[in-house]
Protein: Small ribosomal subunit protein mS29
Organism: Lyophyllum shimeji
Amino acid sequence: MAKAAQPPPKRKSAGFSRTVKRDAQGQIIPEKKEKSLGAFRPLPAATLANPAFESDGRTVMKLPAFAPKPHLVGVATEFPTLENDPARIYGLPKKMLLEFRILSKPCSVVRNVTVKTAELLDKAKDKSSLETRVVLSGRAGCGKSFLMLQLVEHCILNDWIVIYIPRAVKLVDSTTPYEYDLRTRTYLQPAFAFQTLRRLLAANHAKLSALTTQKKHVFEKREVPLGTNLTDLIGVAMKEPPLAPLILDTVMAELSTQTKSPVLFAVDDFQALYCQSAYRDPHFVPIRPYHLAVPRLIMEYASGKKAFAKGAFVGAITASDTIYKLPLELKDALGLPHEHLPSPYDERSRPLTEYTTGLKPIHVPEQLSVNEAASLFEIWKEDKALTASMYDEVFLSKYTESSGNARDFVWKGLLATLES
């Protein structure tokens, strides 16, 4: 008796050969994607078995501790390892972060402008921040962000309360969740407010624990009595994140009135706060930066609408940003040159002009001096970032090619030798 014909076996499609895993309820279990660790992360020592990676005993740099003192001008110094290290807690600008990942330890060169600006902050620690509101300006790559980090480290070491925002562009580029608040008629940014409070607490825990609220505060159904420790006040936001925007405003108000510790408010990418934001309202109209809660808070302290009883405000502009360029309002306030001859017909925003009142520029030199560049060269040479053996010739050629610009000297000069 003939057997019934069997159907031919089904061919597996090349595009759907992967099996789908399901849980007990039949739901698809998503595959874990490999998480990118970013660039320039150090490899584990166990994986570096090649003799080329063996140490010759000279790889550990020994540098003096950072201090903005005249006798250290032109000297490479290392930042101290602190439990409340602001670079670790608040983060860093991207270029600086990548440099510190390549180097064996975070370090920088003390410059004349470092000493002068640190002396300015030392005089401001007993004065209102109304008297010290400055913006670091200069050519792209001249070292403004490094100078700001040096000031932040200096203030941390001298018992200041430090609020550091290294990438303010993230406040206006529509990467942070936002929601409209009828009470303040602004757009709150709860996620960024929460992270700011968390970092503020981690970087300044000892000093905040010595401060208490000067009055009673009510947050919806939550009441915070008079005399509550500021660490406990921030702890309310840690337990109830939706309250973070309100508590951030309250903490800043409390810091403004206290006189026990001076406060440094440092903001990099400062010019981005005065540009058109990428956020949109329900009608898809761009939201002005001063209608966003956190940018508006920063701009109020920058313009003197709000002030700390003791402290200073320091901003730094990013001249290389092609999307958030330096606006006319800031150029006028800081006396910076215009791309073309200024005209009364150039449109300016009156509210933005008001938020620039009283800002003063601190010009960062466009070029490193020969001594400063030599110290920077020694850092990378000791960390074996150079493949050439004729160091004098390499130094002079790279310094000349970069015209003394700090960023170009490192990225287009010294690190470019790794490609050879």
Summary: The two ends are 78 Å apart (CA to CA). Residues 367-420 form one domain. The chain has 14 helices and eleven strands.
